[in-house]
Amino acid sequence: MSAHSSSTQSSRPHSNHAVCVSDSEPICEDVRALAARLDRARVAVQLAQWHAMPHALPCVAPFLPEANQALRQAAMFVRRCYATRKRNTAAIATA
């Protein structure tokens, strides 16, 4: 990750929820509180925090390197979720 972001990942093996927020957004503290609450409830969550970035950061990927990185992180999260779901479905089908 770049110096512009930090990520807090749950102690659980794979996160089921991903949240991306900039410290310049008015909802930043609410997002951090939500991630902490999910973690306390033993719900896997991945929190990506960015410094001084615009709202909906991944949407401006063509214009900011940090946005490209945020978009890659989101894509990796979706791929992980899809792969996990695919494995779970295959395990159920063979059981």
Number of helices, counting only DSSP H or I runs of 4 residues or more? 2
Rg on CA atoms, Å: 15 Å
How does the overall form come out from the CA principal axes? flat
Oligomer: single chain
Strand content: 15-25%
The first-to-last residue Cα distance is 40 Å
- The number of E-state strands comes to 3
Secondary structure class reads: alpha+beta
The number of distinct structural domains comes to 1
**What percent of residues adopt helix (DSSP H or I)?**
40-55%
Spell the H/E element sequence: EEHEH
State mean pLDDT (0 to 100 scale): 83
Strands of the biggest beta sheet: in what spatial order?
1-3-2
Quick overview:
InterPro entries: AB_hydrolase_fold (IPR029058). By secondary structure, the protein is α+β, with helices and mostly antiparallel strands.
Q: What would you note in describing this structure?
A:
- The protein is an alpha+beta fold.
- It has one domain.
- Helix content is 45%, strand content 18%.
- Strands 1-3-2 form a three-stranded mixed sheet, sandwiched between helices.
- The longest helix has 30 residues.
- It is flat.
